[in-house]
Amino acid sequence: MGRDGADPGEDGAMRRTIGFVALWFVAGAAATTVAWLGVSTVSDQLAGSGSHPDPLSADQINDELAGTDGTTSDPDPTTTARPSTTTIPAPQPARGSTTTATGPVTPLAPTTTAPPSSAQPVTRSYDLEGGSATLHFTPAGVSVVVATPAPGFTVEVSDSHSGGKRVEFESDDHRSRVDAWWDGGPQDEVREDD
Question: What average pLDDT does range 24-29 have in this prediction?
Answer without folding.
Answer: 82
